[in-house]
Known about the structure:
This protein is of the alpha/beta class. 40% of the residues lie in helices and 13% in strands. Residues 47, 110-112, 136, 180, 184, 222, 224, 250, 252, 258, 263 line the site of pyridoxal-5'-phosphate.
Amino acid sequence: MVDENTISRWAVAGALDPKDSATRKMFELGMRLRRESDAPVYDLSLGNPHLEPPSLWRDAIVTMLATEPPGQHRYMPNAGFGYVRAFIAERETARFGVPFTEADVIMTVGAAGAMAITLRSIADPGDEVLVPSPFFPDYEHYARAVGAKLVLAPTRADFTLDIPAIERAITDRTRVVVVNSPNNPTGAVYTDGELAELGRMLGGTQGRPSAARGRPIYVIEDSPYRDIVFDGSTPASILGHYDHVVHISSHSKDLGLAGERIGFAAISPRAPGRTLLQRALPFANRVLGFVSAPALMQRSLPRVLGQPGGRVDTGVYERNALAFYEPLGALGFGVTPARGGLFLFPRVPASWLDAFGDAAGEALAQQLAERRTLVVPGGTFGSPQHIRIALCVPGTDVEGALAAFRDVAARPKAP
Ligand code: PLP
């Protein structure tokens, strides 16, 4: 019997969370299946991009290591190299039409590191962090790590933002609204109209102070999938519609560098708290133990981003999504086409809902796993009647997975 008192309440609620272990169970099951047999495993459970970084990036790393003068691998300012921050600020300014400066950009250990330091800089214990649901489950742990509480507001059935539902979920304690577009797990990409409405509801460019404390509500725009939009467009941002914004992104997906941990937080130059955030975020980077983003990764960015060949070709994600729609629809799944990102989030067929109710996603995932096909039950993301399918696999895996779906989905086995 494990004595839970040996670890913190936060760690108990996170590391021992049954929802968390559902994803891990799938991962471990995949490992076991691979050990037991050479037959293929179709692992659609993790959003782990399988595409290699562009050769331009590899060449840049080799060149840097071979030619740079000494002193490149030492401590640096906690916000990162000035010239890299200035480079990112210029790109973000061009992208959003909002005048970022070097001081507004803090280089981070991925989008996850940026979320951690931004929440730490804005939210206090007892505050509420509001997120549209279905949602990326790590938000709950990030919020709890700063003593804040995650509050969910449902999206509409097609996963678009339900602004009245968000407004209803706002309380005196709401401090942050997290917006994730393209979305994990739903594949939704919010329109400019949706984000403008959200900005208006929050008080427009003046920002509505939270009633109890006179403190504004911030929007953290968490956008690690922003360069994976299937129609090739640049996804809309709330930056033009609201002032209290920190925009976050990373190069885990567009450059295939998830393991190298490089991202950034960009403080809206219109945020009234801008200069304080410029001090708070690097401080949080330091004392949360990141210290700074990896030096070599930072320096690789100006050599690659915006150059011909300077990004991964993510077309396979859309091709995989397209390959799923019709067959899943024919099997009775409720499929909302993904507009971007790495995932599909179909609702399981009615026969499964009849047989299993709210355990339907879990039951289907289990039975697919018996056919060597791994998906994540939607309960992990706050929506137990769905499953999440990761699209970051070779196209041949989609064919194999669909054979398992055909075998399993039509005939729910009794619980
Ligand atoms: N936010 C969302 C919604 C994600 O899905 C992920 C990664 O899966 C992250 C943040 C973290 O990304 P990064 O690898 O840049 O830390």
